[in-house]
Amino acid sequence: MGVPNEIRRVLLRQAGVISRAQALAGGLTPRQLDRLLADGSWVRVHPAVYRLHAVVPTVEADVRSAALWLGGSAVLTGLGAAWWWGCLPEAPSRWTFSRSTAGCPPRSTRVAVDRAFVDRRVALELDGHAYHSGPDAHRADVRRANDVMAAGWTVRRFTWSDLLTDPDGFIATVRDVLAI
């Protein structure tokens, strides 16, 4: 199946990743997109974000796919942004994005979470040992979760091990809490 030139340009510009919206805007039909996924030409890396199967995953592709997943208002911040602009020699182990605050909790309760589904008021936290061990980190995590829940959000917490050892269970839980 031929892929329109506009889609080829997007894939080249974005390290081999593309969002569903971009693919459809570039001329693919939903059926053609489904065929590319079914035959393995494209691989789903996030909901509605895909990578060419023939492209080796890179840090750039990971960052771009995360930004596409988060939506147009997502901006890479912190050490990740410093690395992106060549100010740091090595990519950080954790990426931070900022988004538009429309629909977010009031400023007094706005806190950072690993992934927020603003329209559904659902926050996901991935707790790895490196960043979440010790009494101070635990106390900060509990306070943050309480602040987000007090603002009317649902919070689901996972360990990094949950994600690595049971990715299907993780995805099923996320789909369940988002009712998708």
TrEMBL record:
<dbReference type="InterPro" id="IPR011335">
    <property type="entry name" value="Restrct_endonuc-II-like"/>
</dbReference>
<dbReference type="InterPro" id="IPR025159">
    <property type="entry name" value="AbiEi_N"/>
</dbReference>
<dbReference type="InterPro" id="IPR007569">
    <property type="entry name" value="DUF559"/>
</dbReference>
<dbReference type="Pfam" id="PF13338">
    <property type="entry name" value="AbiEi_4"/>
</dbReference>
<feature type="domain" description="AbiEi antitoxin N-terminal">
    <location>
        <begin position="6"/>
        <end position="52"/>
    </location>
</feature>
<protein>
    <submittedName>
        <fullName>Uncharacterized protein</fullName>
    </submittedName>
</protein>
<dbReference type="Pfam" id="PF04480">
    <property type="entry name" value="DUF559"/>
</dbReference>
<feature type="domain" description="DUF559">
    <location>
        <begin position="113"/>
        <end position="177"/>
    </location>
</feature>
